Task: structure prediction
Amino acid sequence: MPALILASASPRRSELLKQLGLAHTIHVADIDETPLCNESPADYVLRVADEKSHTIHQHYPEDSVVIAADTSVVLGDKIMGKPESLEHAMEMLSLLSANTHQVFSAVSIRGRYTQHCLSVSDVTFRAITAQEIIQYWHTGEPDDKAGAYAIQGLASTFIKNINGSFSGIMGLPLFETAQLLSNEGINIFNE
Ligand SMILES: Cc1cn([C@H]2C[C@H](O)[C@@H](COP(=O)(O)OP(=O)(O)OP(=O)(O)O)O2)c(=O)[nH]c1=O
Result:
């Protein structure tokens, strides 16, 4: 079994990998995550995930497997990252209120092969008030989450419906991840 390295600072991604029973070390990739001019959401998350896995794979032997991911919340042509302030969270969550948006999550895996894939999910919010957004902000939960919410937390009370992958919305689509890892000889059921 090759060594598995998670190129991510996201505790959620590590938890999700552990959910598959996969032991891993963490080596955070510090890269510029600014979208390029006119870059589509799909191209953006795939490029950033690839840059993260590439940066970290350089530090390890060829036969190690590095996994990286990138998640964005997308509404129309707006790509939403993490909130920088209460005002920024208010702006994003007001747009998501009473609306359906997409969550794009890319996974990039480098080992013997270079592989990546994309998970896109639809998420529908009920109407949320400015008062709720302010209270939600003060819980600290929106802080380091794309679109300023966490489906796995209190924001579950805002979400009427999802069509897609719960783990993908949380930051690491496990169905796709398991498929890519099996191409590298990492199998969930026969470690
Ligand atoms: C939409 C959504 C996002 N998120 C999180 C997943 C990611 O951690 C974060 C999106 O930011 P990312 O830039 O994808 O990841 P990150 O900065 O946390 O970690 P790294 O770049 O080192 O891998 O938002 C949730 O936890 N729940 C959600 O419902």
Remarks:
- The mean pLDDT is 96.
- The radius of gyration is 17 Å.
- The pocket of thymidine-5'-triphosphate is lined by residues 8-10, 12, 28, 33, 69-71, 73, 103, 144-147, 149-152, 169-171 (CB under 6 Å).
